[in-house]
Amino acid sequence: MVFRFRDYTTCLSEFEHAIWVKCPRCDRPVLSRCLDQQTTWRIACPHCSYTKTATRRAKQKPMPWWSDDNWWTEYRKYNGAVDPLFGLPLWLQTPCCGETLWAYNEAHLDFLEAYIRAPLRERQGTKGNHHGIAIRLPRWMKLAHHREPLLKGIQHLRDRLPEP
Ligand SMILES: [Zn+2]
Description:
alpha+beta; four-stranded antiparallel sheet
């Protein structure tokens, strides 16, 4: 049986409700959790009790952090592997194929793995959401000869997943 990847509607924002980031105080993993209708996120580090809250207005794009020089500095420093609210480095990131492979959480890893494993990827009709991640994934993640290193990278990130 050939597995076909058909999910072209999942958006990155669907994984934003819980993002593993590196605590800026103790460098350990902490969840950035969405508290309400995708407007308020909160970090409460269980290791060092660092707390911070960030908000963004619903449907506002670009997000406030994007207009902040510090956010962009962090974004470039980590090759894009920062969270969209606090600009903190993602916990789940690893060098891969000369780029940075990153994910927000376990569900995001599952999604990426399903995409990378699928030998056939088809786009159904015209219903596909052009904001869907599968279409917007960078080219290097779509190259067949990167499949094995990408799957290794994903396994490495799974090993980094903190206990829930
Ligand atoms: Zn901490």
